[in-house]
Each structure stands twice: as C-alpha cells, then as structure tokens.
C-alpha cells in the first residue's frame, strides 16, 4: 500500500518542487473554498439586501428635498439593485478569507524573509482598501451629493434612479479603495528595486501633479471631488515613501 503526504501527516513539499499539475490541484482547492465561502455569505446576507441598500442610500436621501424620492426606471431594478449590492458587500466582507487562501497557496514557495514582508503587506492592503471605502462613504459621498443637489435648478426635482445611484457609489468606492493602496504599491516598487526613495523624492512635484491629473478623470467633473481624491493620493504617497525610507535604512544597516 502506497502512502501519501496526507496519510502520513507529512507536510506538502514546497511549491517550487512540485509538478505543475499538483500546483493546479492545490489552487483548485483554495478557489473552491473561496467560492463556497462567498456563496454562503451571499445567501446569508440576501434576506437583508433591501436594508443594506437603505443604508447605502442614506447619504442621498438625507440630501434630497422633502418631497423628492429615489425612483426605479426599470421593472427589475427594485430586485437587481439590492442583489448587486449584496454581491459587492459579500465580496468585500470575504476579502480577508480570500487573501488568507492566497497566502496559504503561495506561502510554501516563499523564504522566511519574504514571508515576513508579504503577509504584513497583504494585511495592510486589505485594511487600506476598507479605509478607502469608508472614507468614500462617510466623507466624500455626502459632500459630493450635497454639492450636486445644491446646484440643481429650482425647477428640477432630484429623483435619482436606484441603479444609477448604485453604479455611481460602487465606482466611487472602487476608486478610493484602489487609491488607498498607494502606500503598498510604493513599498512594492521600492522592495523590487524598480524605484528608490531618492528618485521618488526628486520626482515628487511631478507625482503631485499626476495625482491631480488622475483625480480629474477618476472623479465626477467638479473641483470638490477632484481635491478630495488628489490630496489623499498625495498624502498616501508620502506615507509609502516614509516607510520606504525605513526599509532602505534597515536594509543598508543589515548589509554594513
């Protein structure tokens, strides 16, 4: 009778020592776990989909005039909009588990030094992504809605379609969630040796201009939205640069 690593309780060999089909088998197991967890959480949250949409629409409903309401221009919108939002919320809540499965897959191929760097970066990326969404919901979204509704003509009663509002919010959340990953991206570029902190400092003025240029296209066409994205992008770049300096200093001291 032949034995396997599972039957003898022996650990799996490092990923780089395994044939490609073994990689695919292990990857399929992790993907299966992710899909089961996502579907399970989605079904658990589905009965509360309407309440979740009410929570999302609260910033808009707080800004609408007394007799204005949200509308549904499509027969299926009253079902599909909360459904889509429920899927997005499930995916966001399951993100730590997804990263844990990714970490479990790549960890055997990493050296101890790489593991010490990779795991904190993955945890930090999730925290920053959540922070970006929270910043967009609590700070940016109310300010933008107040501006757009306050400048609307008196003869126009704002009545936003629920699907349009959902699309607008999800795009806003993704933009700010990705934007808040700038410190992680900066650190990865420094760790990979693609850039150095010295070169980033020398190009700081161009990077700041680039932040405003990107914000101009990534946000609605108003100055408030652009500033509320560009300034955090700049500050987050400075945070990544600060930790990059610390890593370079630590690497230099370890070599000396």
List the helices and strands and how they pair.
Elements: H1 20-45, H2 49-63, H3 77-93, H4 95-106, H5 112-150, H6 162-179, H7 182-191, H8 197-202, H9 204-218, H10 223-255
Helix pairs in contact: 1-3, 1-4, 2-3, 2-5, 3-6, 4-5, 5-6, 7-10, 9-10
Write out key terms for the chains shown:
256 residues; mainly alpha; 2 domains; 0% strand; flat; disordered N terminus
Oligomer: single chain
What's the average pLDDT? 87
By helix and strand content, what is the structural category?
mainly alpha
Q: Hey, roughly how much beta strand do the residues contain? A: under 5%
Provide the number of structural domains. Answer: 2
Shape: flat
Q: Which stretches are low in confidence, meaning pLDDT under 50 for 5 or more residues running?
A: 1-8
* Estimated radius of gyration: 23 Å
The secondary-structure element order is: HHHHHHHHHH
Number of strands: 0
Number of helices: 10
